[in-house]
Amino acid sequence: MLYRGPEERERPLTAVSSGSDRVSGYGRATLEDGEVVWTRDVVHPSDRERAWNDVQRALGDGGTYDVTYRIVTADEDVRWVRDRGERLGDGTLSGYVEDVTELKEREVRLREELDETFERISDAFFALDPEWRFTYVNDRAAEYLEIDGEGVVGENVWEAFPAALGTDFESEYERAMETQEAVTFTEYFEPLDAYFEVNAYPSETGLSVYFRDVTERVERERRLERYEAIVETVWDGVYALDGEGRFTVANEAYCELLGVEREDVLGRRAADVVGDGIAEGARQFAEEMRRDERESATLSFTIETDDGEKRPVEARLGPFRENGRVGVLRDVSRQRERRQRLRRQRERLSSLVALYDAASDVSSAVIEQTNRSAVEGRVANRLADGPYTGAWVGRTTGTDVTRVASAGEDAPRGTALATRAVDDERVVVAAESDAEGDGGGEAVAVPISYEGGTYGVLVVCAAHRDAFGDAERTVLGRLGTTLGHAIAALDRKAALLSEHVVQVEYRSQAVASELGVPASGDGRFRFERTVAAGDGEYIHYVWVSGLSDEGAVAVFEDAERYRHVRLVGERGDAVLVEATTADAHVTAAIASHGGRLRSLTVRDGEVRVLAEFPQGVDLRTVTGSIREVADDVELVAQQTVARDDAEDERVDAFGDLTERQRAAFESAYYGGYFEWPRDSTAEDLAETMGVSAPTFHQHLRAAERKLLGVYVD
User: Fold this and answer.
1) Count of beta carbons in the 10 Å neighbourhood of residue 451
2) CB-based burial of residue 278 (10 Å sphere; 0-12 exposed, 13-18 middle, 19+ buried)?
3) Residues near 38 by Cβ (< 8 Å), separated by ≥ 6?
4) DSSP bridge pairs for 674
5) How large is the angle between the packed helices 470-497 and 333-368, nearest 10 degrees?
6) Buried/exposed code over 98-130 (b: 16+ C-beta within 10 A; e: otherwise)
7) Alpha-carbon distance 629 to 634, whole Å?
8) Which residues of 327-360 are buried (b: 16+ CB within 10 A; e: fewer)?
């Protein structure tokens, strides 16, 4: 029956369909003209209040309703109907009513049958409606829960059992209702001191809950879990055999040792798993222990896994009930490896001590040598006589390496390694595929370098692998630096002692950018001297002409690479500027080859570099080093000239100065400290060098004493 009518408690209908006769027995006219009012005359008296309240509640929630109630027909028959509708925009209700009496009667019959079924099932059972109210509780559930089954019907489950709030009972029941999917869980209920296994099945009408007391089973499982946890936590393999020699227990560690799956071990004969000989030996030991002929038994053997890996193991075993036996299998490869590692460590420590001694001897010996060849030969011989089988020293020309001194049996090895060490500018150890020859050992190549210059390479060979660890590489790296320092000092001394030098002139525009000064403009810059102050600091003394005092200083202050800029003095139309940098690439490149920067002038958009080198220097290598700083460097001219300062006394005196003493003396000289009035005070120069004034005075006075001693003595 389709209908429409105002939203009033009596539910008068203003329009109905022809189905009204079949549903209620009343004709359309009777209902439409108000002779018969729906709620007042048709709805069952017992359901009138509830039906109207259900409609109002549903309309308040969503504007539609779906309620079921009883009616009394015109023939005074009681029928069940389902009333579904909605509130229209004009405030009237529109919907339809259908007869669901047969469905209700079937529902009642099913409920009666279910009641009988629920009473027959062995599990405890109760049912909840969507409001969490009990609708049914069977006898077993009432017994478990210690409640009156019929008495709790209609009561809220959380009010009846508040202790269940906050437990899995609450969260799992709610999850089942929300997802409409069955849940299964086991939970402890403290008020009853029992574990329950629960299966809950949701539906639109509520939740059906089946449960049983599984306390004994849970406690038994927990004991078993504790036992298994203990066995599985043991790092060693644990196993047990029955009287027939078949595996009944094998923990994961045991299976991992054998390289097999647990299901492939349980039930199998021990002889099939570990071999007849081992299994028979273990059985005899167990029998002897059972007869008290021995207190313990240990077997040591090697097992081979399915993938071919061999592992040394040790088995401790004993008798078990019913003629079986139990045992613990331990992988002793780590113990053996530890012993081997300790032995290798002792050997390495001994080698490292020998290397320290050799490095110390070499460092002391190179000071006594008067030429480079003697230094190179002494190094090769001392290392080959010490902890290594061979050593050789090579000199570099560009990327080429030429062997100049060698000693030991393995001296021919490591040529490719030496080239790689020079190219990478680092200590390189040969991998197995890199080692030349068939000695099966190891080689290391160490660049011989100092202050950016590379003078050669040292190659050391050992008879075994892993001979060059971090400590060895560190010592050899320092030795390479020591050799570089010694060779650089010899080259510088040779340059100072030589009556003739090679004078070279370069030109470039990129060097100006590297120096941080403009390559063109009004100003002209002549770098008079660059002093190595130590700790990576360099002090530059530059004559600037064509600019004002403020303009000259501003050029260096505006360049990022300079700091501690100050005006030192003036001469004619030029001023002397002192500026400090953290590097001096051009100066370092020249000095790394034993050279000396005589002047560096920036004028008319071009930089001119004038330097002097000892005779015999490889100018191609020198030019290559400078081009790493500025790639447009061009060699303009070279000539051999007589030195203008080749006095032996002066050379010897400067050779006695330390780096700090020489830096203090040169900065004082070029900084105008010896002028009167002084262009710079000791405090000015100390600040530039980054030391205290007393320290600067100490270095300067020591330098003065050594230099004056040449002439006084």
Assistant:
1) 16
2) middle
3) 3, 5, 10, 11, 12, 13, 31
4) none
5) 10
6) ebbeeebeeeeeeeeeeeeebeeeebbbbbbee
7) 12
8) bbbbbeeeeeeeeeeeeeeeebeebbeebeebbe
Strands of the sheet with 15-16, listed across from one edge:
15-16, 2-6, 92-99, 78-87, 64-72
| Residue among 333, 342, 287, 288 at smallest CA distance from 311 | 333
Is the pTM higher than 0.70?
no
Report the C-alpha gap between 477 and 483 in whole angstroms: 10
Backbone phi and psi for residue 20, each to the nearest 5 degrees, phi listed first: -60, -35
Whether residue 498 contacts residue 581, with contact meaning beta carbons closer than 8 Å, is answered with no
3-state secondary structure of 494: helix
Q: Looking at the chain, how many residues does it have?
A: 713
The residues near 126 (Cβ < 8 Å, ≥ 6 apart) are 134, 136, 137, 138, 141, 209
DSSP string, 654-697: HHTS-HHHHHHHHHHHHTTTTSSS-SS-HHHHHHHHTS-HHHHH
Do residues 456 and 376 touch, judged by C-beta distance below 8 A? yes
C-beta of residue 255 within 8 angstroms of C-beta of residue 268:
no
Q: Where are the beta strands (DSSP E) in 274-324?
A: 297-304, 310-319
Best CA proximity match to 455, nearest among 483, 494, 478 = 483
Dist CA 21 CA 75 (whole Å): 11
Q: What is the largest CA-CA distance in the chain?
A: 150
Phi, psi of 234 (to 5 degrees): -60, 130
Radius of gyration (C-alpha) of the chain in whole angstroms: 51
Contacts of 693 (CB under 8 A, 6+ apart): 682, 683, 686
Q: Based on the number of CB atoms within 10 Å of its own CB, is 208 exposed (0-12), middle (13-18) or buried (19 or more)?
A: buried
For the chain, list the domains and their CATH numbers. 2-99 (3.30.450.20), 105-217 (3.30.450.20), 234-331 (3.30.450.20), 344-493 (3.30.450.40), 498-643 (no CATH), 647-713 (1.10.10.10)
| 504 contacts 612 by C-beta, under 8 angstroms | yes
Q: Write out 510-572 in H/E/C secondary structure.
A: HHHHHHCCCCCCCCEEEEEEEEEEECCEEEEEEEEECCCHHHHHHHHHHCCCCEEEEEEEEEC
Strand partners, 2: 96
Through-space distance between the first and last CA atoms of the chain, rounded to whole angstroms: 137
Tokens matching residue 692: 């205290």
Q: What is the pLDDT of residues 34-67, one digit of tens each?
A: 999 999 999 999 999 999 999 999 998 888 999 9
Q: What residue type is 188 in one-letter code?
A: Y
pLDDT in tens, 441-490: 888 899 988 766 678 899 988 887 778 888 888 888 888 888 888 777 77
Using DSSP, state whether 188 is helix, strand or coil: strand
C-alpha 168/C-alpha 643 separation (Å) is 98
Instruction: Answer for the pair 193, 213: CB distance below 8 angstroms, yes or no.
Output: no
pLDDT digits (tens, 9 = 90+) for 286-308: 888 888 888 778 877 887 766 77
Residue 268, classed as helix, strand or coil, is: coil
Cα separation, 276 vs 412, whole angstroms = 54
The CA distance from 191 to 100, in Å, is: 44
Q: Are strands 634-642 and 500-508 parallel, antiparallel or unpaired?
A: antiparallel
